[in-house]
C-alpha cells in the first residue's frame, strides 16, 4: 500500500502489487486512474513522482498539501525516473511504513505563454514546454548527483557543466558516432542534451555555448543556423541498461519491443501487436520519418549503454551458458535494421562501456565513427579544473570558510582523489559523478565505485595479473580495440583493454615505441579508483564483502606504517587463511601468488615500493619504503613432504636473504641512509597455501660497505597459523 500525496492537494492510498508494475511510467498510469478527477486534462506521463518517507503529523505535510508551487526538486525527495523499474525505488521485499507518505505527485506547471492546445506530435509540443527556472546564484543551485536528464537539470536550475561546445564539433546532418565511456561518466546527460538540441528545446540552452555559436543544420537541402524557429526532428532515444537482460533472449526481446512501442505511442504511432524486434524498430523509424509533420523525412537515434545486455550476464553463464551469445544476437538484429535504413537516419550516436566486436554494430554500420580516443570529444565527459572552479565556485568558497582552508587546498585533495582520467593523454578530467557527490555532502568518499563499477571485472582478474592492474603499463594502441564477446572470459588477453574501457585504467600519455608503433601508457587514474578496485579484488578473492575487505586492509596498513613487520605478516597470513580452498589451491603453487597479494596491499596503502625491480645483479622481488624503514623482500616457495621440515624452511629463508644481498638493490637507495634497512626472506608453503616462515635481518649500507646484524627467524609464530 503506497501512501500518495498530491502536491497542493489531498492524500490517498494506492493499493498496488509492486511485482506487477514494470516501471514508473505504468505507476503514473495507475495514479491517474485512481485520481481521474484531479488529472482529467493531464497526460499521465506529464506527472512527476517523488519518493519520500514522511510520517503522518509531520509539519512538512501542511506545506506540501497547501502549496502546489513547493519546489520539490530542491528538497530531499528522490525523483522517480519514468523509465526505471519501480523495484529500483521500492524493492519487492521492502516494508512500507503505514500512515506515511511514500510518493509526492506533482502536476506540470501551467503554461502562460500560449493557450492550451491539443497534443498532436511530441516534437511539435516539446519546444513550447521548455523553460528554465531561474535561481539567484550558484549557492542556491542544487547539485545534480543522480540526475541524468538535461531537461530536468535546466528546468530546475541545477548546476550544469556546459558541454554543448563539443556537440558543435560533430557532423550533425549525417554523423554516426560511437564512444566508449565508463559508467557514471556523463553519457546519459550528454545524450539527453543532444535530444533536447534536435527537439529544438531552445530555452533550455540559455547562457550555454551553443546558443552563441549555433551550428549549421540542413533542412530540405538548405543550410540554416540552429535556433528557436528551426523545425524539430523526432528522436528515438534508448537506454539499454534499463532492459531486462538476465532472464534470457525472449524476455530481452519483449522488453525492447515494449520500449519501442512506448516511444511510438508518444508520437501517436502504434504497432502494439508486433512481437519481432526487427519489425518493431523498422516500423518506428519509417513511421516517424514519413510523418507529414516531419519535413526532414529522417530521425535521430540515440542509444545509451548498448552493451549492458551483455555485461549484465557475465557471471551467470553456469546457469545459462549461452545467454551472452543469445543476447548478442538480439542486439545484432536490432542494429541490422538501422544499417538498412541509414538514409532515414539524420544523426546516430551510440555509447557503451566496452567495444565488442562482431556485433553488427561495428561490422554493419560502415560509417560509424569511433571517437573514444579522438580529439573530437576528448573533453565532452568529465570535468576539468576550470569547469569545477567556474560551476562549483560558490560551493568551494563556502567550504573554504567552514574548513578554514584555501581553495587550492581543496582542489589539491580533489585532484588526488578524483582527477586523472584522460582519453588523449593531454586533457585530464575529474569523475563527474564523484565531483557532484562531493559537492552534495562535502565528504571525500569513494563514490564512483558504488555506481560505476563493472561487477564481472574483479572476477576476471587472476592473481597472476594483479601487477598489470595496479602498475603503470604500456600497451600498443591497436590492442585497445573492440573485443570479441565470445572471448571476454580470457583475462590474459583482454584484461588491460577491458580495464581501460571500463574506467579502471586511463591514458597517462601516448608515445611511439622502438618499432615506430603508437602505444598508450596506462595507469590507475586516481586514489578513488585504486582504493576501490583493490578492495573489490580483495573481497572477491576472500569471498567476503567489500566492507570486510576494507577493514582488513586498513588494519594491515596501520601495522606496516608503524613498522610492525612481523605482526603485519602474521595478520596477512590470517587473511590468507580466509581464502576459499578452491580459489587458492592452484594459485598457491607459485610464490608470485603471495607476492601479488603483498603488492596489491602496499599499492593500496600508498607506501613507496617496487615489485621485481631489476638491478645489474638480478631482481629483488619487492622493496617497500615506510617513513622510517626500507624492507627488501624475497619470496621462496616451499613444497613440503608429508611432515613439515623446519630445517628446509630455514634453508630457504637464508637463500632468500642471501639473494637480497647478492642483488644489491639497496645500493640505489643511498640517499635514504637515515632509514633502517631490513632484508626479508619469506617462505610460502604450497601445502597450506600460506606463509610458513619469515626471516628478518637488519643491516646498514654506508660508503659501499654492508654491515649485517643478527638474523631473526620466525617459524613457530607462523606454524601456529597453519591449522
Detail the poorly predicted runs.
111-136, 489-493, 584-590, 613-619
Profile the largest sheet: 6 strands, mixed
Helix content: 25-40%
Anisotropy-based shape: elongated
Average predicted local confidence, pLDDT: 81
Strand content: 15-25%
Strand order of the largest sheet: 18-19-20-21-22-23
User: What structural class do helix, strand and pairing data support?
Assistant: alpha/beta
Cα gyration radius (Å)? 30 Å
Give the strand tally: 23
Total count of helical runs of at least 4 residues: 26
Q: Provide the number of structural domains.
A: 5
Distance between the termini: 53 Å
Annotate the secondary structure layout.
Elements: E1 2-6, E2 11-14, H1 24-34, E3 48-55, H2 59-66, E4 78-79, E5 100-106, H3 122-129, H4 150-155, H5 164-168, E6 176-180, H6 187-198, H7 209-212, E7 216-219, E8 222-225, E9 235-239, H8 249-266, H9 277-289, E10 299-304, H10 308-311, H11 323-340, E11 345-352, E12 356-357, E13 369-370, H12 385-391, H13 393-403, H14 407-418, H15 432-441, H16 448-452, H17 455-460, H18 466-470, E14 473-476, E15 483-484, H19 491-501, E16 506-512, E17 518-523, H20 527-542, H21 546-561, H22 565-577, H23 581-584, H24 592-605, E18 608-615, E19 618-625, E20 629-638, H25 646-663, E21 676-685, E22 690-702, E23 705-714, H26 716-719
Helix pairs in contact: 8-9, 9-11, 20-21, 20-24, 21-22, 21-24
Q: What can you tell me about this protein's structure?
A:
- There is one protein chain.
- The chain is an alpha/beta fold.
- The chain has five domains: 1-110, Ubiquitin-like (UB roll), CATH 3.10.20; 121-377, no CATH class; 385-450, no CATH class; 453-527, no CATH class; 543-719, no CATH class.
- The longest helix has 18 residues, at 249-266.
- The strands form six sheets. The chain has a six-stranded mixed beta sheet with strand order 18-19-20-21-22-23, sandwiched between helices. The chain has a five-stranded mixed beta sheet with strand order 2-1-5-3-4, sandwiched between helices. The chain has a five-stranded parallel beta sheet with strand order 9-10-11-6-13.
- It contains 26 helices and 23 strands.
- The chain is elongated and about 90 Å long.
